[in-house]
Input
Amino acid sequence: MTSEMRIITGPDDVTHGADWLAKQVPELARILPQLRPLPLRLKPDGFGALVDAIIGQQISTSAANAIAQRMKDADLVTPAQILSASDDDLRAAGQSVQKIKYLRALAEADLDYTALRDASPEEAIKTLTALPGIGPWTAEIYAMFSLGHADVFPAGDLALQEAAKVLFDLAERPKPKEMRLMAQAWSPWRSVAARALWAYYREIKKRDGIR
Output
């Protein structure tokens, strides 16, 4: 298996990646002992996982959790349920006007979720970002947590940027382009580096940066 298709399937993979990172990155070696075991965070793939990722866009984890629960309570979890729901139904479940459009577009897309499992991270992300409302962050979160790719890094994530700022003693939060350049040194375990930075964010901020 190539590094590009390295798949995380369980805690041992995360541990292996963390051990590798500790040997390569002194800053991560310093904080990893207090953060272990890093969360696995794997989720089933499919429509529901992408709905959850869309819900989580640009809002806090606590707000996203609450809205996701409201969607479940209202039986708005399948493509058919979302397409048959009214705007009022979806707004009552916490969705904005924009996210209602995104969720309906996803429900209509008829994605081949099985084929995405065999696609490279780049191919999967390209397929997903072709859909309305799914940008790089949403596609990368899906590739990491629902497809299990080990070498994906969502550089636009604000919690990762803040954690990197503190850990590497930077003057300001790195922009996505800077984060991607930094993360190149963490390949082929960039998804584990992200897990470590999210765990570090929780340690320093006392709140979760990712669901």
